[in-house]
Amino acid sequence: MLVMRIFKWWRWSAVLAVTAVGSVRAQDTVFTGTNKGADRVRIAAAGFHAEVGEAAPLKQTFDSVLESDLKNAGVFDVVAKSMQPQAEPAGPKQVDLAAWGGGATAAAYVAFGSFTAQGGKAAVNAYVFDTHNAQYPQVIGKQYTDVADDAAARMMAHRFADEIILRLGGGVAGIAETKIYYVHAGGGVKEIWAMDYDGANPHAVTRLGGIALSPRVSPDNSRVAFASLDKYGFQIKMYSLLLGRMVSFAPQAGTNIAPAWSPGGQLAWSSSKSGDPEIYVADASGNGAHRVTNYKGPDVSPSWNPKTGSQMAWISGRTGLPQMYTMDADGANVQRMTDGGYATSVSWSPNGQFLAFAWNRKYGPGAPGGQDIYVMDVASKKWIQLTNGLGQCDFPTWSPDGRHVAFAVGSGARGQVWTMLADGTGKHKLAGGDMPNWSFK
Amino acid sequence: MKRSSLSYRRSGAAVLALMLAGSLAGCKHKKAAAAPMAPAIDSGVTPTATISADPVAIDQGQSVVLNWRTTNATAVSIEGIGAVNPSGTQTVTPSASTNFHLVAKGDGGTMDASVRVTVRVPVAPSGDTGASSNLNGDMGTDAAFHAAVQDVYFGYDSYDLDGKAQSASAAAASFLSAHSAVRVTIGGYCDERGSAEYNLALGENRANAVKEALVAAGVAPGRVRVVSYGKEKQFCTEATAACYAENRRAQFNLDR
Amino acid sequence: MVSERMKVRTTRGARDVAAAVVLHAIVLGGIFGAGWLDHRHEANWGDLQAQAGAVQATMVSSLPLPPRVKPREDSVLASETPSVAPPVKKAAVEPPPEPRAVPVPEKRTPPKKVAPQPTYAPPKVASEPPPKPTNRVTSGQTSGVRIAMQAVKNSVGTSAINVTDQSFGDRFGYYVRAMNAKISQQWLTQSLDANAQGRRVYLTFRIDREGVPGDVRIVQSSGDRTLDQSAVRALERIDTLGPLPDAYSGSYITVQYYFEPQG
Fold first, then answer.
1. Residue B122: is it exposed, middle or buried by C-beta count within 10 angstroms (0-12/13-18/19+)?
2. pLDDT score of A405
3. Interface contact flag, A421 C211, Cβ < 8 Å
4. C1: distance to nearest CA of chain A, Å?
5. Cβ–Cβ under 8 Å, residues A346 and A279
6. Contact criterion met (CB < 8 Å) for A35 and C181
């Protein structure tokens, strides 16, 4: 009895020791040279100066889109409008840097300028000034001209925001000019639609009147590949965004779904031409198709490593419930990434380091677990969960700057497209839809 | 027949039905679905649509009464018949088995419903593989086909043929052996859980598992065509175990 | 008598042996127990919060996002909304132990996993704004005598930067600041030896017009190889520091940089 007690006590202390070691290790991990909070660049966006008249409503659009773009970017601490000077300086002569850089505003940078519209043409003179560099304050000085309408005002704000993000965000270009392609369901049909990255301007791309799924836009933004159901099952189809019509993709036997572009413009997809769904690779017209997986069971949803173009992640049901795997683009070096549950819909991050995917870790008959978006570090297979309690989340897709992930909540006609920063913050709904795919630049 | 009792509705109708039934508890997916999101149904009231046929199986030349009802619809049509009143009945005499597809369009969106009428085509005296039927020989009618060939059901996330599924496949194989001119499609279906892309691959495996069983039993592979629908075409749209089981199937149809 | 004494001695000897066996058992049990527990800890990759914390740290240095979310200490989620996991989930997943809680092992049941808490201390940075350049070029380019480095201090140490073209730092202070922030974000110091503290490694590198750093050289070693390497790696991890300002006419800039870890 005493021995047992001693033994228990011993194990107890062993546990303590392990805990202590573990804590030290965790502590070390924390010190990764990362800088907290303060290195989000604090920026103020002044209202743009506009004369009353034609420009006034467009300037409102411009101001709000610019502010929302800067907030969405994830790299700025945008000064609240109520905390900044109410002045709307039109140009460098009017701007009072001390007022923007000091007091409660305390912005390191201020964006300002003028918006003019006359005779159907709009012009924006846009500046970003460094409030603490009195001698050479100018960081950006740009002029944008376009037609005087709401869409153009929105686009000019996107372009200016992207310029600011590029210059002040460490050289990674912004995404305000990117689009999200997605599936829009309604009236018994599913079509491919597109919208701006912020959910504005949703519009139909295809009008086929059938079931179209899994849009994937090519790296040069010239084409959208998708899967479409006809009498003989699902086929890969190709829509040219430049020509505004369907272009040919060589028909393949069997069920053909889930296309994915390599950074070099090849297409991978899942085809059952052999009788079992396997991953195939062909050129952008469907020629030269060759198989890269060879294992009984569903193999689907490939995603290339956009950084190298030499690896793919995909989903396979070869051992039962679907799991996430990676392999070289020729099918060699297969590695299983998930250790259980129900993992689907993988998307490889632009820097090649992460996989975003949907995972239901408690999936199974009778299990009420949720399907959520996770991100895994490819090298270490460590992961974090980014969504929780939103509903059935699926189809994550990385923005080209690697700072954002869009995903679907729910599916079909009830589906919604959401977006968030890649650290799981800033979640918000963009539009009704399913299977989002973020365009390249 | 089992098939005729299944109302083949689109997901929207299911949402509505579920909302009315208040049976959302215990299903996350359904919770997310509680608020209609698609732009198509953001405004106005979603139409409802139901259609039935009596009887659902006839001999060729006989008539059947279609009975449909819609609400909140501004334009109602039945494929093959054209625009119709919001609610009504009509007697039709289809020459071949037909899906009567009712589409109700309203300010709040579009809803559709369909009913299948099976027409028993008289047996052609010899090898008639015409457009109306490719059945051949003694007892080859749609009804006979569906009487002899039952759908194959699968377990959760599985494409293995269990005992019941094997006997269903064997029955289909013997029918096909007896009717050498008959060609079939096998549709692979999944329940609504899980991911759409993965389910399409899984549906393919289900349909292919049945095809392999037929081929192993001596049916020429060229007579069997496989189409996967994943979870895109649900037979039953309720979030119940029975409904999920109903949807996890490989379905035989005559290939025309 | 003799035999009795011997008997006593034997019993005592047996007692000593028994005590020794028990003690050995305790020691071995402790060793194996600890090893086993530690093994358990390693085996469940991804399942433990400490490791989720680690991936958070990896992500933080790899995502082009400024770190800002402090992982919740009681969950693996990086989610803004707290978990509303269904009750069944709780039964399936062990709730994370309290920070100080120590599982009391019982004989029959395997001990619970002990997940060290990710003590994700917010590394602080650069609270002081970069000093204004005091030295101004008055007559064209002069030799790089004046090295007014913009130093950035953070919890991992100090790094400082200087662009050899003196007017560059004056005119494009924003670029130097953004560059400094980005490099210090990429500087991973967890493998550094405690002896490296207080030492400095001086590097130079070039940035071409597109912003790509290259030609990284150690000008003066810190004497600590791991520190030297960590500094070089920080630069190698960077694809771009952003295109050089349009108004800058040169085709590249040369940057001097030092890293100095602090305890």
1. exposed
2. 96
3. no
4. 34
5. no
6. yes
ipTM entry: 0.85
Q: What number of C-beta contacts closer than 8 Å exist between A and C?
A: 305
CB pair distance less than 8 Å for A25 and C50: yes
Cα distance from N-terminal residue to C-terminal residue, chain A: 71
Residues B172 and B54 occupy one common structural domain = no
Long-range pairs for A119-122: beta carbons < 8 A, 24 or more residues apart: A120/A147, A120/A148, A121/A145, A121/A146, A121/A147, A121/A148, A122/A55, A122/A58, A122/A146, A122/A147, A122/A148, A122/A149, A122/A152, A122/A153, A122/A156
B182 and B209 in a single domain? The answer is yes
Residue of A373, A411, A417 to mutate, interface with B, max B Cβ within 10 Å: A411
Q: How far apart are the CA of A73 and the nearest CA of chain C, in angstroms? A: 9
For chain A, list the domains and their CATH numbers: 41-168 (3.40.50.10070), 179-438 (2.120.10.30)
Nearest to A37 among C83, C111, C122 (CB): C122
Q: For each of the domains in chain C, give its residue range(s) and CATH number, in order of start.
A: 2-92 (no CATH), 150-261 (3.30.1150.10)
Give the range of the structural domain holding residue B160, as residue numbers without chain letter: 124-256
Instruction: Answer whether B226 sits within 8 Å of A345, measured CB to CB.
Output: no
Q: Test C53 with A133 for CB contact under 8 angstroms.
A: no
Percent of chain B with pLDDT over 70: 73
Quote the number of domains for chain B: 2
A271-303 pLDDT per residue, tens: 999 999 999 999 999 999 999 999 999 999 999
Which residues fall within 8 angstroms of residue B172, CB to CB, at 6 or more apart?
Answer: B148, B149, B150, B152, B184, B210, B214, B252
User: C187-225 pLDDT, tens per residue?
Assistant: 766 666 666 667 788 888 899 999 999 889 998 888 888
Residue C169's pLDDT is 78
List the CATH number of the domain containing B83: 2.60.40.10
A216-225 pLDDT, tens digit each: 999 999 999 9
d(C-alpha A343, C-alpha A324), whole Å: 6
Cis, bond preceding C123 (omega within 30 deg of 0) = no
Do B114 and B130 fall within a single domain? no
A368 in helix, strand or coil?
A: coil
CATH classification at residue B164 = 3.30.1330.60
Q: A410 vs B198: CB contact, 8 Å cut-off? A: no
| Last residue of one domain, picked from the residues B120, B144, B159 | B120
Q: What is the DSSP string of B34-66?
A: TS--SGGGTSSPPPEEEEEEESSEEETT--EEE
Of B120, B146, B171, which residue is a domain's last?
A: B120
B146 and B109 housed in the same domain: no
Residue B93: predicted pLDDT: 79
Name the nearest CA neighbour of C122 among C151, C156, C74, C90.
C156
Contact across the interface for B204 and A415, Cβ inside 8 Å: no
Q: Nearest-CA residue of chain C relative to A132?
A: C132
> Are B94 and B142 in a shared domain?
no
Shared-domain flag, residues B252 and B161: yes
pLDDT band at A71 (very low <50, low <70, confident <90, very high): very high
Beta-bridged to residue B9, according to DSSP, are: B113
Closest chain A residue by Cα to residue B104: A187
d(CA A39, CA A27): 21
Which chain C residues are closer than 8 Å to A36 by Cβ? Answer: 67-68, 122-125
Q: Which of A340, A425, A325, A330 is closest to A378 using CA atoms?
A: A325
Q: Is C103 helix (H, G, I), strand (E, B) or coil?
A: coil
What subunits make at least 3 CB pairs under 8 angstroms with C?
A
Using CB atoms, which residue from A322, A410, A413 is nearest to B198?
A: A322
> Do residues B139 and B246 both lie within one domain?
yes
Indicate the pairing of strand B98-106 with strand A121-130: unpaired
Tell whether B65 and B158 lie within a shared domain: no
